[in-house]
């Protein structure tokens, strides 16, 4: 499977090259009190969500440890899904953004140390996953690459909902994220012109809840490639 990171880097390189080659012009930024809509794809890494060990208490007196019946290790595969955002600019550098994602990650469970089956076996299932989050997006001032590329930082939190195997199991949770990216203006970005462009973003996400087997908070990276337009 092609890594989402390699795909994003390959798509980003021509954008960066074009932005560096642009002539100098007015700094592109948000238009205060205007809405910007973004849509595209996101990818996330694989995520281990816990192990389960089934044990049987021994009857012998003074037995050193329980007898292991089986051990199961669970993990979500790497995922690519849809990403949609709507931002409202508060100033030229600051915006509040509401976003949502949709994906269908595979949940793989590897069973080992099974006294009956012996060899390692795998159980796979498809999960439908939705997220909704609210973020603050801040364009870093006085940092630029060419006349059309500007970096930004982003942070916020959201809600997670996962449905496993046709709604047989429904789990909810919460996320916190922090990251950054770059915005490339194809046109606009000034005070009077509608913005059209692309953005690439990387986040570190801390997830609590959802489908898991260890009741721990999990941290994993995610990447987005989006087009945007001012409304």
Helix and strand arrangement:
Layout: H1 4-21, E1 35-44, E2 47-56, E3 67-76, E4 79-89, E5 94-103, E6 106-112, E7 121-139, E8 149-164, E9 169-187, E10 196-209, E11 218-230
Antiparallel strand pairs: 1-4, 1-11, 2-3, 3-6, 4-5, 5-7, 6-7, 7-8, 8-9, 9-10, 10-11
Give a written overview of the molecule.
With about 230 residues, the chain is mostly beta strands. The chain has a single domain (about 5-230), classed as Porin (Beta Barrel), CATH 2.40.160.20. It has 1 helix and 11 strands. Strands 1-4-5-7-8-9-10-11 form an 8-stranded antiparallel beta barrel. It starts with a helix and ends with a strand. The relative contact order is 0.22.
CATH topology: Porin
Biggest sheet architecture: 8 strands, antiparallel, barrel
Strand content: over 45%
The low-confidence parts are 7-25
N to C succession of SSEs: HEEEEEEEEEEE
Number of domains: 1
What is the radius of gyration computed over CA atoms, rounded to a whole number of angstroms? 23 Å
Based on the coordinates given, report the CATH architecture: Beta Barrel
Query: How many beta-strand elements?
Result: 11
Strand order of the largest sheet: 1-4-5-7-8-9-10-11
Distance between the termini: 37 Å
The backbone outline, from C-alpha atoms, is elongated
Look at the helices and sheets and give the structural class. mainly beta
Question: What's the number of helices?
Answer: 1
Q: What is the mean predicted local confidence, pLDDT?
A: 79
CATH class value: Mainly Beta
Helix content: under 10%
């Amino acid at each position: 499977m092609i890594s989402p990171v390699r795909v994003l880097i390959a798509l980003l390189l021509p954008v960066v090259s074009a932005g560096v080659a642009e002539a100098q012009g007015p700094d592109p930024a948000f238009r205060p009190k205007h809405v910007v809509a973004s849509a595209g794809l996101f990818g996330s890494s694989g995520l281990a969500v816990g192990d389960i060990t089934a044990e049987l208490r021994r009857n012998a007196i003074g037995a050193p440890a329980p007898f292991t019946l089986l051990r199961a290790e669970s993990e979500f595969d790497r995922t690519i899904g849809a990403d949609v955002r709507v931002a409202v600019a508060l100033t030229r550098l600051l915006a509040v953004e509401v976003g949502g994602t949709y994906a269908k990650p595979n949940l793989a469970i590897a069973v080992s140390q099974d006294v009956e089956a012996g060899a390692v076996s795998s159980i796979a299932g498809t999960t439908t996953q939705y997220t909704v989050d609210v973020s603050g997006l801040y364009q870093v001032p006085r940092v630029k690459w060419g006349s059309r590329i500007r970096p930004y930082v982003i942070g916020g939190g959201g809600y997670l909902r996962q449905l496993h195997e046709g709604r047989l199991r429904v789990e909810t949770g919460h996320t916190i994220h922090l990251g950054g990216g770059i915005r490339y203006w194809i046109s606009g970005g000034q005070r009077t012109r509608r913005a059209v462009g692309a953005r690439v973003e990387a986040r570190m996400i801390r997830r609590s809840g959802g489908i898991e087997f260890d009741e721990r908070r999990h941290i994993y990276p995610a990447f987005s490639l989006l087009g945007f337009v001012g409304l």
